[in-house]
Amino acid sequence: MSKTLPTVLVVDDEVRSLEALRRTLDEDFTVLTADSAAAAAAILAREWVHIVLCDQRMPGVSGVEFLSEVREKWPDAVRIIISGYTDSEDIIAGINEAGIYQYLLKPWQPEQLLLILRGAAEMLRLQTENQRLSVDLKVAGPVMRRRVADKRASVARSFAAESLLRAPDSPMNAVCEMLAKVARLDVPVLLTGESGTGKELLARALHLASPRSGEAFVTENCGAVPDQLLESELFGVKRGAYTGAYEDRLGLFKQADHGSILLDEIGETSPAFQVKLLRVLQEGEVRPIGAPRPQAVDVRVVAAT
């Protein structure tokens, strides 16, 4: 039986670029092409697409705008932008608004392109496998639980620090060595680096190498949310706290209880809000909006900026 290839939808208004990308990917993927966002949306509506590779500069709509729509309507598709421009605002928007997996610059090299798309396909496969295992775990007996645990360990190894792609002489080697040492210490961690340099991957690897690896790993992009909304997202809300609060809502800190939480772009929050976060670090407790008293939480905080 022949292996089913992942499906890639390539979106570019330049016919030559479409053809070059199709030829490069054809052996490893089932390739669909579209010369506009409208044509791509029509394909997504009728075909099962695993990866969307979209040019940033197109007439009428940008790649970020289109992939933001893809994120909303087809969230399971891995989204990748390809561009000939190094506009930092486009890159940041791609990460925050479109949730892109990678921002690839032109001129691209075939080997680099294939490496990125193979990585995206493998990530999608692991996520699908993890979701299936979660369903299995709910209905399985002791034997199946052991099999699921083994599979989860395999998935965890795929995201571990030693699995991060890097060259033999890469500065990331020293970072990963430090990560392995810090992971064993139950202390808050601050990761610094430019957008798109893999801080979330490092945070996840840190969690998987820690004693909390069996618990939840939760992420929040603090730079994309206003302070007032961020407070409700992180700390939770009690019913009746404000108009429209019809039920209790569990905050991300409680969802990550006994696990780890990544607070990305922490430097974008206001000083007043950072004081509230400091209370969590110092006291180990959060107070949901409208709650009469704080609630204890046991969470490892990983901040990134």
Q: Describe it for me?
A:
- This protein has 305 residues and is an alpha/beta fold.
- Helices cover 45% and strands 17% of the residues.
- It contains eleven helices and 13 strands.
- It is globular and about 60 Å long.
Structural class estimated from helices and strands = alpha/beta
The side-by-side strand order for the widest beta sheet comes to 2-1-3-4-5
Stated plainly, the CATH topology of the largest domain is called: Rossmann fold
What would the principal axes of the Cα set say about the shape? globular
Domain tally: 2
CATH superfamily of the largest domain: P-loop containing nucleotide triphosphate hydrolases
What is the alpha-carbon Rg in Å? 21 Å
> What is the CATH level 1 assignment of the largest domain?
Alpha Beta
Roughly what percent helix? 40-55%
Separate helix tally = 11
Order of helices and strands: EHEHEHEHEHHHEHEHEEHEHEEE
Mean pLDDT: 82
**Unreliable parts:** none
Question: How many strand segments?
Answer: 13
